[in-house]
# Entry
Amino acid sequence: MFGFEELGAQSLASEWFHDNPASGRVLGKAGFTPAGETMSNCLSRGHKVPAHVVALDRGSYMTRKMTP
# Structure
């Protein structure tokens, strides 16, 4: 993953809107785990909407990368 391998990040965070569970599944398959909930700006709607926060740390990423 670019953030870990090229930028040297120690952790990554992302959000997905509550009414878009497909995005949550994609992030889950990439190894991200739940880290809370928030209200996040949605440009297309013009206001804040509920969102799930997910995170992935370098150690978890490396463990997943090494597993076939």
In short: The chain has a mean pLDDT of 93. The chain has one domain: 2-66. Residues 26 and 68 are 19 Å apart (CA to CA). Residues 21-29 form the longest helix (9 residues).
